[in-house]
Design brief:
With about 325 residues, the protein is α/β, with parallel strands linked by helices. Helix content is about 45%, strand content about 20%.
Length: about 325
């Protein structure tokens, strides 16, 4: 039950009075406050008078043409800001509940995200049947352009961006591994030196692909030149090229989906692999996420993450 001291504020309709009081204190003028709030000055004066009577202490003192807060007024000024912040938080929470009744989510992800993003979205939409969604899949370069233009609600990148103008939050592990055909000369070998595997012909995605950027960074860090035999524009094309015996590839573990692949695709045991990496949510700094986007981020991190990782099939080495 509300305490009597609180009930008296509610009884006298204090919120409109606090609104007039806050503007008057901030502007130092009852006239300017009335103009800002689009009410008549006598109305503003009546509101301040009623609030003063409710509080039981003077809130302003007048010096010349300006008004200044008393000690009681300063305490009330700080308190009314807390009240307004609490009301804003309440409204955001209620809007979030309304949005999940009929919200929309525009999600853009790195192309490899097609192996798990639809499942995450599907689980989310089962939880919130009123939500509909659109999913765009692009390479790293295009995804960066879409983010810069704020074309979507939320983005999923295959690796952290390391940019000051973007907010990122880790989503789930995205390990990189070295794939080959099962009859490769190094199949079954243990702890293969990276310098040894670097001499193999490599199959790579096109320039601008996130996986390629990570692979090139790795070669650069090791001080070893890469031997790119073929560039291909899709992960599926790289898998077919591996099966054709054209080379090996550094790829996301998710490239091979949540279902078992051809038994001829194997993971080589290369020193330093699996290479630690993470999928990340991203959005422009300063962007106010919709309630639906925030709910999806929370759902994906807390619930869908376990679902996706549990369904990754084991790969033959």
């Amino acid at each position: 039950m509300l305490q009597a001291e609180i009930r008296r504020y509610l009884k006298h309709g204090t919120l409109p009075q606090l609104r007039v009081f806050e503007a008057s204190a901030r502007l130092g003028s009852l006239t300017r406050a009335a103009a800002e709030l689009h009410i008549a000055q006598p109305t503003a004066s009546v509101q301040i008078k009623k609030l003063t009577e409710t509080v039981g202490l003077p809130l302003f003192e007048q010096v010349g043409k300006r008004i200044f807060l008393t000690d009681a007024g300063q305490h009330l000024y700080a308190g009314c800001h807390e009240v307004f912040r609490a009301l804003c938080a309440l409204e955001d929470a209620l809007n979030g509940m309304r949005a999940l009744e009929s919200g929309h989510l525009r999600l853009a992800a790195s192309s490899t995200g097609k192996y798990f993003a639809p499942r995450m979205l599907g689980a989310f939409m089962q939880r919130y049947p009123g939500v509909d969604a659109a999913l765009e899949l692009h390479n790293w370069k295009t995804l960066i352009e879409r983010l810069a233009n704020n074309e979507d609600d939320l983005y999923i990148f295959a690796a952290p961006l390391g940019r000051d103008d973007v907010v990122t939050q880790a989503l789930l592990p995205n390990p990189l591994v070295v794939f080959a055909r099962d009859d490769h000369p190094l199949a079954g070998a243990g702890r293969i030196a990276f310098e040894r595997i670097a001499h193999e012909p490599f199959l790579m995605r096109e320039p601008g692909s996130g996986t390629r950027l990570l692979a090139e960074k790795l070669f650069e860090q090791r001080g070893v030149p890469s031997r790119i035999r073929m560039e291909l524009s899709t992960d599926e094309a790289i898998k077919e090229a591996i099966l054709a015996g054209l080379g090996v590839a550094i790829m996301s573990r998710f490239t091979f989906g949540l279902e078992p692949e051809s038994p001829r695709l194997i993971c080589l045991d290369v020193e330093g692999f699996p290479l630690e990496n993470h999928w990340h949510f991203a959005y422009p700094i300063g962007k106010r996420l919709s309630a639906t986007a925030r709910a999806f981020m929370d759902f994906a991190r807390l619930e869908a993450k376990g679902l996706v990782m549990a369904e990754l099939p084991a790969l033959k080495a």
